[in-house]
Every structure is written in structure tokens, then in C-alpha cells.
Amino acid sequence: MTGTGAARPYRIIGVDSSPYTAKVRAVFRYRRIPHVWICRYAQILEETRGIRPALMPTVQYPDGTYHTDSTPILVELETAGSSHRATLPPDPGQAFLSSVIEDLADEWLSKCLFWLRFGTETAGRFAALWVMDDARAAGEGEDLEAEAEQFRARQIARMPLVGATAENSGVLDWSLAHTLAALESFAGNERFLFGSRPSIADFGLYGQLRTISIDPTGLARVRASAPRTEHWLRRLDDASGVEGQWERALAPPAVEALLELAGACYLPYLEANAKACEDGAARFEVETPAGLFGARPFPYHRKCLQSLRRAEADLPEPCRERTRAMLPQTGCERAFLAPT
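RESULT FIELD:
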């Protein structure tokens, strides 16, 4: 546990159907950090109702403070406490690339999840009932069904905001297929992106894909094209017994494949989104190998681009030179040659 002598363990408050909650919980388990898991929608609990930003999960630290936003929470665990069983590789270049892939998972694959989850009535009803059944201490009969339907309607209304639309479905389906192919190429027991121990990138992918592989539409996709990846996801749910070593190579083949997805779709999307935010545009489009992707500007994703650029600029030499040398082969170099 970070902070020796803490009077109480961390408390993770969220729902099992949340990919970000699953990601954080899996890291706590892997790192063997004492914690209490509370399956509840944090926004309806009196103690956490007013916490902002209202994101999942809400984590109460041993000092009593509450924190949201999964990535900052996991980074704080790396920097504030022991490096034992760290999820950021010690090589700065690998740590940077793992952060790029984690960001890709959190902010781009989440669109794939949203589309698969609410793109059809059957999938949407399953997901909404799962969320609302987890959300409350007691929910049954007509009340639960009604709450689930209200939740589904709200999520469907949000689909254009995140770009999870029928017009974008080809790009999202292609992105998921590319991701599953990359993982299926190496997935195995105690095999991970940067070696025989998991990184923050593995856990980012786990959060989104684990949820996709439980929802009915996504489950069919994963089992048809990436059965070993499905097994890999189940094992990563609790990797507390994994030891392992970091890979020597900066970017093993599966890492390169995922960076190619970032270079083809996610980073161009971030750049176009940032420009649309600056221009005050109501909508923008970006060209991808699978066609045009159109969306509304999202200010938070402008911050994501800025954060990734700062991380790349802060790499120590010659690590930065080594990392930049491999970026062109993945299509990622353009995003990092722009001014910060």
C-alpha cells in the first residue's frame, strides 16, 4: 500500500459494467494493494454524490480524500508509493508508448464499446439492465426495468456526442478488428504487451475489451475472431499471481500494431478535434483507412493531445531520439512533430 501506516485501505466505488472501474480494480489486484470493492453507482451515494468530475470509479484514499478519473489515479499509485509491481515500464520510451496505448483504449476504443453496447436494442437493453442492477442496493421488478430503460435512452442520446453512430460504424468496427488481431497475435498465459508482466497499456485495453466481451454483440465478435484474447482478458481480471519481466525491445510487434491504429485513427482524430475546438467548429471529420469519421468537438480530448505531446517532449535524450526513430513506421510521428 502507498503510505505506510494508513489506518484504512483504499475504497473503490463503481459498477462492474464500467470499463474504467474494471481497469482500476484490476491494477489494485495486480499490485496487491489492500482495497475494498464497493459495487455501487457512486453518484447516488450520499458520501460521493457531490464529487466532481462525476466519473467512474470514485476511489477513496487511505487519507479519506476522494479521487476520480482512472488514469491520474493509476499514475499517482506509481509516483506516490512503492515501485513494487509497477505498471509503467522503467524504460521511459516504453512508459511513454504504454501511455499512448492506454489513452487509445480509454478514449478511442471506448467509442467502439459505446457503439456495440447501444447500437442495437438487444445489446442496449442488456447493458442498461446490467448497469442499473449494479447501481443500487435494491432494484427489482418494474422499477428496475424502468430505470434501465431511462438509462438506455440517455445513453442513446449521447451517442452522437462521442461519435458512436451508424455513419462511423465502419471505422469503429475496423478499429476493434485491428485491436483484436494485434492482441490475438501474442495473447497467452502471462504474456503482455511489454513483456511477461502487465503494463498500464494492458490494463487500459483490458477495461474496454473485457466489457465488450461480456456485452452480447461484442461477445460474439471477440469469440469469433479472438478467442485467446477473451481468455487473456479473464486472466487479467486478477493478475495478483503474475511476476514476470519487462521486454528489452522498445516496441514488440503487438505494440507496433496498436500504435499503427493510433497513427491511423486516434491521433489524427485528436489533432482534428483540437483544431475544431480552436476554430469553434460545430463538427469535424477525419480521414481514416476505413473511411471518414465525423464527430462534435470534445474539449477533454484536446487535453489528451496536449498531455501526450508533453510526455513525448519530456522524454530524456537519447531515449526521445530512439522513440522518435520508430514513430514514422507506425504513422504516429506527425502528432508529435507539432508544437506543444
